[in-house]
Amino acid sequence: MPPERDARGLATVQRAMAHALRPSVESVSSHAEFAGPANVAVSDRLAVYANNARQFFHGALALTYPVLRRRVGEDFFRQLAHEYRAVHPSRSGDLHWVGEAFPGWLVARLHDTEYAWLADLARLEWACEEAVAEATEPALALAILGMLPPEALDGARLRLQPSLRRVESRWPIWSVWQANQNEATAAPVDLAAGPERCACVCTSDDGVAVYRLDVEDYAVLGELHGGATFAEAVARSNTSPDVLARLVAWAFGEDLVVAVNPSAPA
Fold it and tell me: Do 128 and 200 touch, CB atoms closer than 8 A?
């Protein structure tokens, strides 16, 4: 058989196999593309692979969203994973990314229910996953600002760690996340406690740090993260230079700053 025909035949089998393992395909009674022992039904053989694919998907999702899984329990989490996979099956050989669309899917799935807040908790956990996947760059010390002439500070811009992610919610998602970081029984969190704003960043091999920020600090960090100068960050967030100074000192102290770009000459 010519090599090109072999390649086409393999591609046909691979496409048929991928289709058969999709969660929307309930069963397969026969497939001419599949060879094997005649005394074992094709559907039985495929069921083994389908079960493995389902378990790997669930396992990857559980590793990405451990707090959410703990909050809803294994049974409900497995149900959510099954429903989610039917709409968003894995499209990559890297299972790290199977949970990318999960927070958005939860928004629609839990809308107008008492569990709507779980979508924001999922956004926080996915932000942590994104932070882990990003590179960590060497951080600068606060002393570098002292090398700039005073008149250049207003026009200075900071470049922050590529792993930095920000999440804002009308629910206390940081408190829920924090309460579920050990094996002990999590303390209950009052969901009526109000909004919380978080920053996630990975700056070392120790994993992701998740910070809770107040309204002003979150606004200023967002402006700096977006490339605003010091003066622009103060003006756009409608805050004071003192708030900026405190936030900048904190960012340097937490190894978030990887570059300082002074204002361009006039």
Answer: yes
Token reading at 43 = 């559907």
Alpha-carbon Rg for the chain, nearest whole angstrom, is 25
For the chain, the average pLDDT equals 86
Check residue 61 and give its pLDDT: 96
Residue 103 has pLDDT above 70, yes or no: yes
- Cα–Cα dist 187/176, whole Å: 9
Please check the confidence at residue 247 and state whether its pLDDT lies above 70. yes
pLDDT of residue 3: 55
> Do 125 and 176 contact (CB within 8 A), yes or no?
no
Backbone region of residue 22 per phi and psi (left: phi > 0; alpha: psi in -120 to 50; beta: other values): beta
Selection from 74, 21, 27 nearest residue 52 by Cα:
21
Distance of CA 213 to the CA centre of its chain: 19
Per-residue pLDDT for 119 more than 90?
yes
CA angle 158-161-163, nearest 5°?
145
- DSSP annotation of 4 reads H
124, 200 contact by CB (below 8 A) = yes
Amino acid at the residue 233? A
Tell me what pLDDT residue 266 has.
Answer: 45
Q: Is the pLDDT reported for residue 10 higher than 80?
A: no
In the block, residue with structure tokens 């994993």? 207
Name the DSSP class of 141.
P
Closest CA to 233 of 140, 146, 157, 167: 157
Longest dimension (CA), the chain: 83
Q: What is the pLDDT of residue 30?
A: 46
Pairing of the two strands 207-213 and 165-169: unpaired
Sole residue written with tokens 């951080």: 139
